[in-house]
Design a protein that fits this description.
- The model is unreliable at 535-546 and 571-577 (pLDDT under 50).
- By secondary structure, the protein is an alpha/beta fold.
- α6 links the parallel β5 (127-130) and β6.
- It is globular.
């Protein structure tokens, strides 16, 4: 049989390091999937919902750095890819979408399942190509691959069935993939930054995901400058563990001394972060410098005194050659001490957890963190799960923490963990799921995991509500509405689907239940934990206006990272939380 365009596609993707393609087939994709079958080097991961496949691919691609393919057939299958591709764009994962397309003879005729891929994918995709002629293949497939890898994000190849099946044009070519280039600011800018640092009395560092490959350099800079290191959620896993300069997280989920350090330094160095909540960043009283590989990130969240385009590792290395050591460490010690005292406070519900029913999620998360292995990969659904991940799951050299941190879609954790498990077979992968999130996407594809026997541990926060939104509603002064729902016993559901199911209702069963789940290696586990919603439960005799005002202020504190004062209040007021 002659090589067709679909053969070229898979050969080039395999050449570029693609090992898996997640998705669902359909008529437009039939020649594409047939070529995948013949190629034999790609694991086709049939999922029950294309969106699940993309969230799996995002975690797979983000952690391995290798491109991962996803596919959906023309029209509705393609549309199901979209939310996950937005996530890939925001979390910066090289995902290549193979979008089925109608026959070329039907393009622009409003045929069944027809849609315009350029318009549709415009917001998500870094590069979209529609193959209408076999002679395009090597150029556009190569561009999609290189863009996804080098620019770190999703690209789309829309392939009409007739073109996929058409005979390939030209000789096979090797797909050349350059390694990530080193990007360093100009010497003049580096001199300027060195002067600013040398002149500043106190310096604070605020890091994001761009510090992923620069942990050692950032810590060395902090040591040299006696600078507290705060981070955005996406920077936590790279900068928090084993770092004597770490002062916690800022933002809605914040804790520790980060907010204070960032807002009271003479000079703030923002490293590899596009942290979107400007209100947590200081105004003009603090001089601010931002360093990022992406020029679009520079200065868009806060005004800057200096913005440099460069990767954090190369830039900090260059700085280390010239910045002078600072000797006064009082500023650093103040915020490290603040962080330590917050850590003690944070232990409140953990320490008291065994005696509190319904189960406190803080206790659940902290116990999970203690029991999990040193190289566990944790994934959290958008919702309260992210709060518990941020505050109670301890990072480590080989631990990984991930979620839909920048796109903030629900239902990401179970598929993320599934993708990570396929990329790192046998490694402990844990999905902390909301009950809303799990029933939105995770539950149907539990069947996929059962078939693949992937030992993903799903921890379900069974609070019978869209709790995070309930908190938001109260914070905004609304009465919670549209947030409550009823759940089945998920452990029974899981068993019926062929997975292992564990139900935990009693606080003293948390540790044993989690231990049993983590030890299960034969396939997926669902641990259905009946937890206290982050309810702002009030004594019934409190008059409504007091109650409204109180819940409002409590919710505000939850969302503004003021957990410490909140816990103090709760300690004084029996058990309001
Ligand atoms: C796809 C999607 N729909 C809606 C939202 C808005 N939203 C954010 S968190 C959340 C609640 C999540 O509920 P659940 O999964 O049960 O987690 P919980 O907060 O209860 O722990 C909602 C509705 C979203 N982020 N993504
Ligand atoms: Mg919930």
């Amino acid at each position: 049989m002659a090589r067709n365009v679909a053969d070229v596609l898979w050969q080039m993707l395999v050449d570029a390091g693609v090992k898996r393609c997640y998705g669902i087939i359909g008529d437009a994709l039939n020649p594409v999937i047939d070529a995948l079958r013949r190629n034999g080097n790609i694991d086709f991961v049939h999922v029950r919902n294309e969106e699940y496949g993309v969230f799996a691919a995002v975690a797979d691609a983000y952690f391995t750095g290798a491109p991962v393919a996803v596919c959906g057939t023309a029209g509705p299958g393609v549309v199901h890819l979209f939310n996950g591709l937005m996530d890939a764009r925001k979390e910066r994962a090289p995902v290549i979408a193979i979008a089925g397309d109608v026959e070329t003879s039907l393009i622009d005729t409003s045929a069944l399942e027809e849609m315009n891929p350029y318009q549709f994918f415009q917001t998500a995709s870094l590069y979209t190509a529609r193959l209408v002629n076999p002679a395009q293949a090597q150029a556009v497939i190569g561009t999609a691959i290189r863009t996804a890898i080098i620019e770190k994000g999703p690209t789309v190849l829309s392939i009409p069935g007739d073109i996929a099946a058409a005979e390939a044009v030209g000789e096979p070519v090797h797909t050349s993939i350059p390694a990530a280039p080193v990007l360093r600011p100009a010497d003049s800018d580096l001199r300027c930054l060195t002067d600013m640092i040398n002149e500043a009395g106190t310096v604070a560092i605020f890091g994001g995901d761009g510090c992923r490959d620069a942990r050692e350099e950032v810590i060395e800079l902090a040591a040299r400058l006696k600078a507290p290191v705060g981070y955005a959620l996406r920077g936590k896993q790279w900068l928090e563990h084993d770092n004597p300069y770490a002062v916690g997280l800022t933002g809605l989920l914040g804790y520790g001394g980060a907010y204070g350090a960032i807002n009271h330094a003479d000079l703030l160095l923002m490293l590899g972060t596009d942290f979107p909540f400007s209100e947590f960043l200081p105004g003009a009283k603090v001089r601010k410098v931002q360093i990022d590989t992406n020029p679009k990130h520079i200065g868009r969240r806060t005004s800057l005194d200096l913005g440099l385009v460069g990767d954090v590792k190369a830039t900090v290395n260059a700085l280390l050659e010239n910045v002078r050591e600072k000797t006064d460490d009082r500023f650093l010690r103040k915020y490290v001490a603040e962080t330590e005292s917050f850590d003690e406070l944070k232990g409140h519900y953990v320490d008291n957890g065994p005696g509190i029913k319904p189960i406190r999620p803080e206790y659940l998360a902290a116990t999970l963190s203690n029991l999990a292995s040193d190289d566990a990969m944790f994934f959290a659904d958008t919702g309260t799960a992210v709060m518990w991940l941020a505050r109670h799951i301890k990072g480590g050299k080989n631990r990984r923490l991930f979620g839909s941190f920048s796109w903030a879609s629900m239902a990401n954790a179970a598929p993320n963990a599934f993708g990570a498990q396929l990329a790192y077979p046998g490694r402990q992968t844990i999905a902390i799921c909301g009950d809303g999130g799990f029933t939105m996407l995770g539950m149907g594809d539990l069947l996929t995991q059962v078939e693949r026997k992937t030992p993903v541990v799903h921890i379900l926060l069974n609070n019978e509500s869209l709790d995070f939104v309930g908190i938001e509603q109260q914070e905004a002064g609304y009465i919670p509405y549209g947030v409550a729902f009823k759940n089945p016993n998920f452990a029974v559901v899981a068993e019926a689907m062929g997975a292992k199911g564990i139900r935990i209702e009693e606080p003293d069963a948390v540790s044993d239940g989690l231990t049993e789940a983590l030890a299960h290696k034969a396939g997926p586990v669902v641990v259905d934990v009946v937890v206290d919603p982050y309810a702002l439960a009030m004594p019934s005799h409190v008059p409504f206006h007091t109650l409204k005002g109180y819940t409002l202020s409590v919710a505000k504190q939850v969302l503004s990272g003021k957990m410490d004062s909140l816990i103090k209040t709760a300690e004084r007021n029996i058990r309001l939380l």
